[in-house]
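User: Can you help me understand a structure? I only have the sequence.
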Amino acid sequence: MLIPRQPVPDLAVPVVAGSTWALSAQAPQAFTLIVFYRGLHCPVCRAYLPELNRLHGEFAARGVNVLAVSSDTPERAAQAVADWHLDHLTVGHSLPLDEARRWGLYVSSSRGKTSIGIDEPARFSEPGIFLVRPDRTLYFATVQTMPFARPHFDELLKAIEFALKNNYPARGEVA
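Assistant: Let's start by predicting it. Here is the structure, written out as tokens:
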């Protein structure tokens, strides 16, 4: 289990743009926001990530670097970027499931085609959102077993503003 104010695991994933994104290379003013999403097959992700894409500039203006990442193949991640119009987001792929588990994510097995007619991969990680401080310690985390009822990105922006304005500490640090 990850503990606030403690270091998070390193994370390095290939991105759709063709390079590699590494947490260790991030130097945000305030936070790195890592959004683990289920993949191309997920109708909730299909609605959720475009909202993050729309607000990308708002996060950047607050000193937040953003990554969206899944265990999808490069081809499926590229299709998500194209079909969902994720023109502002850095989208990672090929997240190993053992790495997802190090981040505390839940892993599910395929149940076939989803409601949007796309096959689920044999195994994939469920959603999680993490705010990581520039020193690579955990500030905020939410992990889910289901695709539903995720935090709204506009509310997360307000929380970030509050935290920065009030120098609000990470909570939940007592192990």
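Now, to help you interpret it: The radius of gyration is 15 Å. The chain has one domain: 28-163. Let me know which part you'd like to focus on.
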